[in-house]
Target: DUF3000 domain-containing protein
Amino acid sequence: MAPEVFRQAVAALTSARPRAEIELTEVGPPKRLAPWAHALAAEANGPAGELATARLVLLYDPEGQEAWAGVLRLVVYLRAELDPELATDPLLPAVGWSWLTDALEDSGAAWTALGGTVTLTSSARFGDIAGPARSHDLELRGSWTATDAELAPHAAAFHELMASAAGLPPEGVSMLGGWSGTAHRD
Model:
């Protein structure tokens, strides 16, 4: 049986409900990173289909690990498809990272030892591979240590990260139909 601290952490992490556009499912966690692990997969969808996918992994090591500075570590991997115009913005990696840091700060999560990377990729498809001829993606990998077992704010931060990466409007706000994001000038 899993330790009580880990069971409480999983319960807190999974009790937070995401907004309607985000679907969560439990998936198999990695086996060798910590004695106890739990993982969630997330998918954010919009009117045109999938906008972003992610995984959130909770690691628990009762002995702690030096690099963690604690016993509960959260790891996120996120991928979001980008519009070609955004993909060339030199500030995009910093903006992508701010999605995570802002979400953690805004949620009230207690954390330390935050680190990670933001990678931009551009792919061209050839031959029989289905999909658009070109695609541009942002990948964010991050991890941080929860300084207490109350993980509901961390779950809220994960949901907010997904919404930001997917470009979803704030909850309760509807996008005007037909708006393309470009201004018309006469």
